[in-house]
Amino acid sequence: MKKGELIFSVLLVPVDFVMLVLSGVATYLFRTRILDALRPVQFHLNLTFERYLMLVIFVSLLFMAAYALSGLYSLKSTRSTIEEIFRIGIASSAGIMAVIIYIFLRQELFNSRFLVLGAWITAIVFVAIGRLIMRKIQKSAITRRDFGVHRVMIIGSDKVSDTITKTLRANLALGYRVVKQLADPEVEEIKFAVGNPGIDEVILANPNYPAEKVSALIDFCNENHLVFKFVPNIHQALTVNYAVDTIIGMPLIELKRTALDGWGRVAKRTADAAGSVLGLIILSPLFLIIAFLIKWETTGPVFVRLERISRNRRFRVYKFRSMVKTAEALKTRLLKYNERKDGPLFKMKNDPRITNVGRFLRRTRIDELPQLINVLKGEMSLVGPRPHQPDEIARYEKHHKKVLAIKAGMTGMAQIAGSSDLPFEEEVALDTVYIERWSFFTDVRILILTFLKLIRDRSAV
Question: Architecture of domain 150-231 in CATH?
Answer without folding.
Answer: 3-Layer(aba) Sandwich (3.40)
